[in-house]
């Protein structure tokens, strides 16, 4: 699976239900419905020179119970000191 200039580098598949209680109402959401996690990375090598780190976008695809994590270069205001 790839999207745009991204390649799938890792795929995690849930083997069995976690059997954990639901999250509290503090703003957290349960991930029990997610069955697959795909980690995607740009085809180019990420530039980590000058303090830049990898950031990511997390995209939930409800119709397929899949979450994609797309690694990307951090934007200037995203860099953590």
From TrEMBL:
It comes from the Eukaryota. This is Uncharacterized protein.
């Amino acid at each position: 699976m790839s999207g745009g200039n991204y390649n799938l580098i890792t795929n995690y598949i849930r083997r069995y239900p976690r059997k954990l209680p639901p999250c509290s109402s503090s703003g957290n959401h349960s991930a029990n419905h997610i069955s697959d996690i795909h980690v995607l990375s740009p085809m180019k090598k990420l530039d980590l020179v000058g303090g830049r780190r990898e950031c990511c976008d997390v995209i939930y695809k409800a119709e397929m119970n899949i979450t994609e994590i797309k690694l990307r270069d951090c934007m200037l205001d995203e860099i953590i000191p």
